[in-house]
Each structure stands twice: as structure tokens, then as C-alpha cells.
Amino acid sequence: MEEHTGIISMKGNPLTLLGDQLQIGAAAPEFELLDNELSKVKRSSFHGRICVISAVPSLDTPVCDMETRRFNEEAGNLGPDVSIITVSMDLPFAQKRWCGAAGVEKVMTLSDHFDAGFGTAYGVLIKELRLLARAVFVVDREGIIRYIQIVKEVTNEPDYDEVIEAVKNLV
Fold it and tell me: Of 31, 96, 110, 143, whose CA is between 20 and 30 Å from 39?
């Protein structure tokens, strides 16, 4: 498995990412994740829709909480052809609890806890922590990656304006 250093850090400490480094214009890798009801969800189930994939370390941290709430707000403005999912290593039970407490209903939370398949396929699995790096991928209706943002400092939020602009360019 590929290892990549010098891409992200946490509180200034460098971390190692595992998996392939994806490129804009490439097909988005398939994944199989668990939703809050323990049902399997595949990337291909979003075919025909624009999909924003937000990878976060854990919903139970302040920055991930803010990010997912912000994308939940934005989801209402992006229209019915856009799906926003947040992927973390949190257990589906924890994700369901968090969504209920946060009132998040427009973002689908999916768990990569079982095998970290998403993390390695998208190159965002943090070797040292077995958590996902903070990253956002925008995938078009045909399953092609049109935007990638790997947040250099894991404790920072992504640039939401860039993500929203990338989505609007596809709508």
C-alpha cells in the first residue's frame, strides 16, 4: 500500500496518508460503507447525481461537527441533484446519535470503520491514527472526480466556498 508524507499534519505534527492519491478527471473509486441503519451504501448508488464526499476524522470533534453542520446547511441551497455525504471511522451507532443530536438531516453519514476501504481507496487514511484525513471530493453525475481538497492541517475546516463553487459549476 502506498504511503504519502508531507501532505497533512495535526497541530503541526506530520502524518502519513495510506492509499492511492486520486487525480481530478479520474473515475471515483467504488466504496461500500455502512449507513446509520447498518445498510451497505456504494458510491455507484449516487450515479446520476453530483456527490460531495466529505471525509472527516470523527463527528465527535468540534471541527468535524462544524463542517458537517455547515454542509447540512449548504445542502438545502444546492438542489435535489446534489448528494452530500460525510464519511468517518465512527461507528454507525455513533453517527446516528450525533446526527440526531445535531439535527443533521440533509447530509448522509457513512462509516468506514469496518475495513477502512474508503480511506485507502481515496488516499485519506491516516496511518498513525486509523482515522480519515479531512478532505472533500466532488464527483460528477458520471462518477468522475471534478474537485479534490485535502486540508493540510487536520484541525482546520475546508474552504467551503471552493467546494460550493465546484458543485455549482456542475449543476
Answer: 143
